[in-house]
C-alpha cells in the first residue's frame, strides 16, 4: 500500500514539475520580450544585428544569449517576486534596528559573497595616481547589490551606499579647483563636496560597513590653494541631519538638503540669498527612487516617500538648453541646437523620475538668465547631486550656466571668456570627488577643441535619456546613472500644483 502511495505521489510530483517547466518554456519562448525595466531603470538588451564576422568570432551567439536572459518576459514581476522571497528569509544583524546588508554577487565582481565591500585591484593608472585599493570603492560605484545598507522598517526604511575612500581620496578634487583658479585667475573658483547619506544615518553598530567622509572632505578643503575657496557643507548638513535632507529611497539628497548647501555657498560667495519663504513648495507623493533597483530590496519599494521641491517666486528667469546625444556607452556623439524650455519639470505622484524635476536630464548644457541684477555669472560644474542647486541661485546671479562634468564638449577656456563667467563652483558628491576620472575630464575641458557634430534636428522631448540612464547590463556604471521617464514641463506661473504633504 505504501509503495503504491509513494508511486502515485512521485507521479503527481513529476507531473507538477513537468507542467511548471512547460509553462516556463511557453512563457519564455512565446510571450513578448521585455524591453525596459522600471525596477532597474534601464533599457534591456535588444536582439543583436547578425554579421558573418560576429558569428565566426562567437560574438553573435554571446549577444543572443545575453538578449534572451536580459529581456525575459515579466522580468520586473519575477525580480519583485524573488525580492519578496529574499525579504522573508534574509538575516538581519539586529532585530531592533533591522539592518540588512545586501551581499555582492560573486559572478559580478569575482569576490566572496560575504564581503559586501570587496573592491577590485587598482589599475596601473590608478597606482601611478597614488590611489589606494580602499579608495577604489569610491570609483567602483555600480552597486546593484554590494555595499548597500538598508535600515529601518515600515515607512522609515532608508537605503544607503557605503563609502570606501580613505582620508586622501579627494585630493585630486582639490587639485582640480586649484588648476581652474590658476587658469582663470580673475574668476572666483569654489569647491564643494557633497557627503552621501550613510555618513549621518549609519547606526553605530554597523559603522564599520563604511569609511568616514569627514576626513577626506576636510583634507581636500585644506589643500585648496591660489585663491580657490572651500564650500564645506559637511557641518552644514550635519547641523540639519534631523531634517529630511536626504532621500530614503534614492541615492541623492533632497532639495531641502541642497537648499542648505546653496545657502552655505552664497555665504562664501558673498551674494544675496533669500530664505525658503521666497519659494513655492511642491510635493510629489509616493516616490521610490534609485535605491530600490540598486539594492533589490522589496522593503525599499514598500516605503515610498514625498519628494518635496521648491520653485522661486519674485524673480524672472529664462532657461535655454543644448542637448547632447550619447551612444550606449554614454559617449557624446553630437549636440542639438539651442532651445528654450522650463527649468522645472513636473512628474506625477508615484513617478520614479522625480529627481529629474530640475532641468529634466543631465545630458545637456543649461543656461538660465535671471533678473537678479548682481552683475555676476555663475558656472556650476556638477554631477547629478548638483542638479538641485541651480534653482536656488536665481536671486544671486544674472546667469547660471550648468555643466555636467560627464557630457560637456565645448572648450572651457573659450566658454568662460566668451560668456563673462565670474564664478565657477565645482559641486559633486563624494564618490565623484574621490575619482581621479573627475579631475581628468574637467582638466580636459580646458583644451578640447569644442567642435561637435550636430544631429539633423532635435526636439526638446529628445532629452528623455537622463543622467540616471543605464547602459547595457554588463557595463559597470556610476551610481549616479539610471534612466527615468520623460517629464512634462511645469509652468509655475500658470499651473497650480497641490501643496498637501501627507
Q: Brief description of this entry?
A:
With 502 residues, this protein is α+β, with helices and mostly antiparallel strands. The chain is built from 17 helices and 18 strands.
Explain what this protein looks like in three dimensions:
The chain has 502 residues and is α+β, with helices and mostly antiparallel strands. 30% of the residues lie in helices and 18% in strands. The protein is built from 17 helices and 18 strands. The strands form five sheets. Strands 6, 7, 10, 11, 12, 14, 15, 16 and 17 form a nine-stranded mixed sheet that branches. Strand 1 (36-37) and strand 2 (42-43) form a beta hairpin. Helix 8 (171-183) runs parallel beside helix 10 (214-222). The longest helix has 29 residues, at 2-30. The radius of gyration is 24 Å and the shape is globular. Residues 89-146 and 455-502 have low confidence and may be disordered.
Question: What amount of the residues lies in strands?
Answer: 15-25%
Quick one: overall form?
Answer: globular
Q: Note the main sheet.
A: 9 strands, mixed
First CA to last CA: what distance?
64 Å
